[in-house]
Specification:
six-stranded mixed beta sheet, alpha+beta, 560 residues
């Protein structure tokens, strides 16, 4: 550690103070008093720069500040360069084909099983409105307004923003007032007679002073730290977007699941009603001696099995209602009023598919991972700067007098300017290892970013493949419902005519029940995969403003 100090001491006598010997100078200090006002102190600075300090206090401070600012022109460590998008032109191996049913079958709700992809189209910010459900829109708005997860994410972003502003303050000088008042006992009191006036050796010393401190960011360590905190803020910004996307996706998925459960419950109840009617018919025929008791027992067993399916579905529906209520930011006792049926949801038929080159800019998780790469890059710069000399400039000015009224006396004024440099010489490799750790952290962040990008493209490809399969599955399920329903009706008529056995009626009933449940599940899957595509493509956050304005700052001393 080396120091350079320029000091101006007060006059030889402290105003009003006891008469003493001549003033002294600290070792390593160049004292400048009034007779030597033309003296110049020159010190060769870092990189051969000549720093010239004049005895005038303003001139010295200005010269040192200019030198410090000129030195603060570089920042060590790697400069972050944003990664490029993967050089691919599509999400799937072959050119993308629209999801299509073989016979363009329309569902019973009136919506076509077919959908089409619109390449390059933008994702709307309120993508959930494409399902054209007023209840769903209202529930999403409630969740966005009341869910505490979003409030926590907003607070995390504001914390990161405040940390950036706090760190930026290190680039500027700080001004501190340090007034002092002390009682002083002069030496020699023990050698005096008790009869002498002992108060001559006791006096007060008042020293109002201010200190200006500045740490020149010569090698950019503070600027790299600011860069790191700004990257952290960017990460929190996209963590917020990810929280919005996750919340809206969960609400939509839960609503679709509730609609699917209601469809399955409705199908199960219809089958139970039909089986009950058949059982009543069997009992009537048994009383007439037309059938054996075994037929009645078989129908009772089939009815019991169907009734056994109902309680688990009702339990899942109740739990799904609790989930939707929690997503809306409410307690289970304050259940939401909105209910969902598949018939009330419209399937989006035009599905936007962003260009692959845009995906890395649209996915919040990819943008968050990219911010972590920049944070790790800046951390390398911080570690490198910590291995280099650190500089500090301190200017102290004030006055010192034994009476308060005399502190304004020009003869009581003093000032000092100190330049200090600290450089590590031996630390057993501690700073070097920290730099190596930071470099490995950058490698880790880059690898994690690549993994996030690969997962993002996989999510889109999975959603596209799923939608292609969904169209065929829905069409096949609707065809199965129609066929099994017609078959059941014919077999029941044939059974009444005595052409078929009761076992064939049971088989037809089970086939119809299975077809109804499969159809409901297929349609729910198609709705869910449509929502999954919007989520996989980023959810359109760039078309809305999710960042809440910060609360007003009312502290009048916020710069202290």
């Amino acid at each position: 550690m080396s120091r350079m100090r320029v000091a101006r001491a007060p006059g030889r006598h402290v105003a009003g103070g006891p008469q003493r010997g001549s003033g002294t100078q600290d070792r390593g200090t160049v004292g400048l008093t009034r007779p030597s006002a033309r003296t110049l102190y020159q010190e060769r600075g870092f990189g051969g720069m000549m720093v010239e300090l004049a005895p005038n206090r303003c001139g010295r401070a200005a010269a040192m500040l200019a030198a410090a600012l000129s030195l603060s022109a570089c920042a060590v460590g790697p400069n972050y360069v944003p990664p490029e998008a993967p050089p691919v032109g599509r999400y799937t191996k072959e050119p993308l084909k629209n999801p299509s049913a073989a016979d363009n079958i329309r569902t019973r709700q009136g919506g076509s099983a077919d959908q089409s992809f619109v390449s390059g189209a933008d994702i709307p910010g309120q993508w959930w409105t494409l399902f054209h459900s007023k209840a769903l829109n209202q529930l999403v708005e409630q969740a966005l307004a009341n869910n505490p997860t979003l409030e926590a994410a907003q607070a995390s972003l504001r914390i990161a923003q405040q940390n950036v502003l706090a760190q930026k303050g290190t680039l500027y000088p700080s001004l501190t007032a340090t007034p002092q008042a002390q009682g002083v006992l002069a030496p020699g009191l023990d050698l005096q007679s008790p009869l002498n006036n002992q108060t001559n050796y006791l006096y007060s010393l008042y020293t109002p002073q201010a200190v200006v401190a500045y740490n020149p960011d010569v090698f950019g360590g503070n600027r790299r730290q600011i860069e790191s905190l700004e990257a952290t803020t960017e990460n929190q910004r996209f963590q917020l977007e990810a929280a919005y996307l996750s919340l809206t996706a969960n609400v939509v998925a839960a609503a679709i699941q509730e609609a699917a459960l209601r469809a399955q419950i409705d199908a199960t109840r219809k089958v139970i009603q039909a089986q009950t009617e058949v059982l009543q018919l069997f009992n009537k025929q048994l009383s007439l001696g037309q059938i054996a008791g075994a037929d009645v027992v078989q129908q009772q067993a089939a009815l019991a099995l169907s009734q056994q399916l109902l309680p688990p579905l009702e339990k899942q529906l109740a739990q799904q209602r609790n989930l939707l209520t929690a997503l809306a930011g409410r307690l289970p006792s304050d259940e939401i009023a909105e209910t969902f049926q598949l018939s009330a949801l419209r399937l989006p038929t035009k599905l936007p598919v962003s260009l692959p080159s845009r995906l890395v800019q649209q996915r919040p998780d990819v943008k968050a991972a990219e911010a972590l790469v920049q944070q790790a890059s800046a951390s390398v710069g911080v570690a490198v700067a910590n291995r280099l000399p650190q500089f500090n400039l301190t200017a102290t000015g004030g006055s010192s007098a034994v009476k308060i009224a005399q502190v304004a006396n020009p003869g009581a004024a003093f000032f000092s300017i100190i330049g200090q440099a600290t450089a590590p010489i031996f630390d057993a490799g501690t700073l070097f290892r920290r730099q190596r750790a930071a470099e490995e952290g950058l490698t880790q962040a880059q690898a994690q970013y690549k993994a996030t990008v690969i997962t993002a493209f996989q999510n889109v490809a999975d959603a596209l493949r799923a939608l292609q399969a969904d169209a065929k599955a829905v069409a096949a399920a609707e065809a199965a419902v129609s066929a099994t329903n017609q078959s059941l009706g014919l077999i029941r008529k044939q059974y009444t005519a005595g052409a078929v056995t009761s076992a064939q009626v049971l088989i037809a009933q089970q086939g119809y029940l299975s077809a109804l449940i499969t159809s409901a599940a297929a349609r729910a899957t198609q709705y869910g995969d449509s929502a999954a595509l919007f989520v996989a493509l980023g959810g359109g956050w760039w078309n809305r403003n999710d960042v809440a304005p910060p609360p007003p700052e009312t502290d009048p001393l916020k710069f202290l």
